[in-house]
User: Fold these one by one.
Assistant:
Number 1:
Amino acid sequence: SGTREDTTKGRYIVAAQDLKPAEPIVVEPAVGACLYTKFFGSHCNACFAKLVAPVACPECAGVAFCSPECRDRACSGYHRFECHYLDLLIGSGMSVLCHLALRLVTQAGSPEKAIELGAELKQTLCAHEDRREPSDYFQRTLMAAFLLRCLQKAE
């Protein structure tokens, strides 16, 4: 039992005992999360609950929240960086993973903590660097520069 790794399967976990179908084997809090843009009008941008009585952002019309509490938490955190640039971010073709990376940086609290989180994630996640094409690295570098500029302008 435990974590194993090989060149064919990658990293994987082996159970010490038989498991029932759909039985949870690991439960951990998410490091970060963001809503797919197709759900911006129907779900809370903070907690992802389906909207019944939407609460608007006071600065933009791009997102909605399920409660004043979710709105206030988002607007004092990640949304203050995304708010005025949301149309640009969506229009850029940014993938949900790029949005998640942006969200992780803006939720970290400080540049130092963002760098620390990035180093931690690099140690625990598998990026398949050996399988990536140079064009993929180029595209990711351009997106990182674009997101950095948006963060600089938002401050």
Number 2:
Amino acid sequence: MESGESLNSLAFVQEMFRKYYVEDFNIGVYVPLIDKREFGFASFDNQMVRHKNFRSTGELKVFMQIFVPSDVYYSCAYYENPMAEMERKGWLGADLIFDIDADHIPTLCERIHDRWTCGGCGFSGKGITPEKCPLCGSENLDAETWPCEDCLG
């Protein structure tokens, strides 16, 4: 990190991601049949790179060390040619995936730790986010929800 560079800076965050991709990242543990999948990446400046394919985990790792994505996505489907247009990919099969958003599960302790703030007047509260601010009636509400250990236990 250069002198004067803030720990909160985007450059610092990108460097930490790059360091992780160089030193600790092992996608092969997580993604079977890597050569049959389509990958997508989001950059730190909100650009998307899609329809990428890699022959090996090593090839993917090198790409990630150079591109340094903020987000990585891969298809649950397997294709003969993952980089082709959709109708020419040659679907082979797919993994069965369940996406459960734990922050949408109603819990007893959400009244304690979930918070919301009105973007109109700044009024805030805890628990389930109302549809409108009870003080000014604004629908511009920012919710902060997170499942704690008790919620998930």
Number 3:
Amino acid sequence: MKSILIIDDDPLIRKTLSAHLAAKNYEIISAETGEEGLGKFQDSSPDLVILDIRLPDIDGLETLKSIKSQNENASIIIMTAYDDMKTTIEAIKSGAFEYLVKPLDYIELDITIEKAFQVKNLEDKLHFIVEEKQKEYTIDNIIGHSPPMREVFKMIGSVANTRTNILIEGESGTGKELVAKAIHYNSPFNSEPFIVINCSAISDTLLESELFGH
């Protein structure tokens, strides 16, 4: 059963929202202040947070940022009685999944929650794939103990954290693709696609357009 933390200082909204979501078979946790909400988030690790932007103690945006600092992958839906474009932009920039205006449209809310869980599921799958690729292409899996290979390992480590374009040269069968994958999957950008192109299979006249477009 997925759990949802509701943070709102209005007891009527907490009650009606809790009843609606409980009927959808979600486990409900509620808090009336930002401070209480942060404590319950830390204790319960809910699957989703529904957060009011106006709270009596900690500002909703600050609560959002604090939750994200605890778990950058937290799914958070912001709700407010004020349709404020500046606040909307700030909330999305700070990591909110969506921003809903009160009074809540429960059909829209249900759809938004479902989308949030779908996105979270895809992110979890991607994270798993990346972790498996990191294990597969760890430097430890590249065989070699000679001084030149140690220099290769150093270079992999030094360039993996950069966006630098890298040219890897070597004879056929020496492991150029293995080194390229080791760089990619050990970089901060490892969730982005790694695309392999067999350039020898593309004619010289088409190579440039295939790689860079017409």
Number 4:
Amino acid sequence: MDRIGKKLVWDDWNKNHIKKHDVTISEVEEVFKTYTLQKQSYAKRLELYGETKSGRKLTIIVASTRFNKPYVVSARDMSSKERVYYELQTKAN
């Protein structure tokens, strides 16, 4: 799996957006550094799946900026469907 970028791009919009999902910047940064699964999404976005050290399973949606840096579009708890997909994929590897 090719890793994308090393540093996430943050601005007021995405900081406020993830806050609405009760996700912190530090949780997103933690999962981004260690995510175990990625999937292509719509509009050339990537869905990244991983979990925090405390066990919280998150889905992070990123888009690529014009400088090819990962911009956080959203971050939230995995849905039940995503959780099943994540569990199946990570156990298979």
